[in-house]
């Protein structure tokens, strides 16, 4: 990083640091006073793994922010501030940092948070971004992955599979595919935070594919999870993908195994069904009951006839080969 | 990242997360309750930029932790916990993560902090590490870079240039050079934190070379800084390097421009001179007065005759070409 580049970054990122705590990014550290417990999460993106080299740089910035916002939502928290570590490739024009900063600025305004500090280093490798984000609880608790209970329902927000479909469209160069935006700029479900604090057992966001993440949720709670495949919510693009497939079950599994959905997966007592249906209407956000938890371990998926479906490797995989 | 690798990481890193707040690394986020203001810092290392591909993996882990500890020391804080983002190269054996974790465990015990969470992703690029660290103030304030005042002295801890000399030794393959350890495993000056809270004006750690960092400190305070080159503290290896050089001034500038020292640079009122000399004795840590602050901008370096020394490009540079 040359002195020139340092000052470019300073100039471009400093306006994002709008709080006193950030010390104008002119110090080595921020000094933050949190009111109450803090949810702390960190998620990283790597070019060629979590986003494509050709993705617009401002959506790359926003994706980096949003995957962390999604974690906060799952923990029933609202964003407060974040730290940014930027590994900037030597070959990528430093001028693109302006677009990167603009993407962050837009999302800071939408989601209400500010840059608190960070580090920018040059790398001979791919563009990589690590964000650490702080959140404040919207209720009295942060639902843990380990809080699932036997007999609870399993729910998911939004639709499943659009992250993966969007990636496939990007790889094909299909710029008009309706799921492309979902891949490039996922929609963190901040509006669900209060509902999760009040009604969820366990909760987590779905980043590595619904099947892999369901398994993790169950495993963290020392339980088994049953998923009713045909109940999974899909977008029109997802339904079209299944309809066009020679093997519809394989197509459903593919959508459920693909990453980058950034929806919320949570468990809830059956007594919450009506309340959650009402919340879904109130929020204008689909909440779908897709399965349940029982004793044991692992994941069981069922088809429309209630038959168990053989699961191949579920991967813990971003489709680009992480 | 395959499911197997995920479980390896889980197994190896989980013991580092010894606090309830970390939720055993089995959740997407940590839930932390801080008592009072929190110093938050983040610093990243990239293989081939901030460390060498051949550096022992456990010292790489420790360097990643220590560069952040050094930032805390400069802000008069003690460590509380940290988040780790690990970009692990596909080609590097996952088994090395055990050694990496061991290095962290050793330093956690030495410095008293725990892993709170993190993210591990695979990368087609170099091994990269980002750590975000939280600290608690040891006094009533965190010295800011912007708090230098006209007429204050400029002090530095320890010795200057051993980071750079250690790097040169590593590049030559000289495994017995006394400065090698300084490059690979810098010594964060945690013992200085309380003294800085009480006696320093501005303070920062020296990571990008004393000359570049002095300039940053002065600039953050809208002042000019004068450095008396012959007063800089050097190790026997540093003094030998100067003695062997055909151009001793150039050699002094090289040591002062090299990175990776991780000493503390701070300003203090002249009234503090006796107290700081006593602190130096009490701590068994060299504290050397190397210059002063005046109105204006930029850096002026002087030789033994009090003549101004021409400064080339000071770089904001890790010597490997960042």
Describe the protein.
The structure is a homodimer of 322-residue chains. Chain A has 322 residues and is an alpha+beta fold. Chain A has 2 domains: 135 residues, 60s Ribosomal Protein L30, Chain: A (2-Layer Sandwich), CATH 3.30.1330.10; 165 residues, Phosphoribosyl-aminoimidazole Synthetase, Chain A, domain 2 (Alpha-Beta Complex), CATH 3.90.650. Chain A is 34% helix and 25% strand. Chain A has 10 helices and 12 strands. In chain A, the strands form 2 sheets. A 7-stranded mixed β-sheet of chain A has the order 7-9-6-10-8-11-12. At the A-B interface, strand 1, strand 2, helix 2, strand 3 and strand 4 of A face strand 1, strand 2, helix 2, strand 3 and strand 4 of B.
Give me the strand/helix succession of chain A. HEEHEHEEEHHHEHEHHEHEEE
Biggest β-sheet: strands ordered side by side in the sheet of chain A: 7-9-6-10-8-11-12
- Return Rg of chain A in Å: 20 Å
Tell how many strands the DSSP assignment of chain A holds.
12
Unreliable stretches covering 5 or more consecutive residues of chain A: 314-322
Beta-strand residue fraction of chain A: 15-25%
Superfamily (CATH H level) name of the largest domain in chain A: PurM-like C-terminal domain
Rounded average pLDDT of chain A: 92
* Number of discrete domains of chain A: 2
Sheet of most strands of chain A = 7 strands, mixed
**Can you tell me the CATH class of the largest domain in chain A?**
Alpha Beta
Overall shape of chain A: it is globular
Helix content of chain A: 25-40%
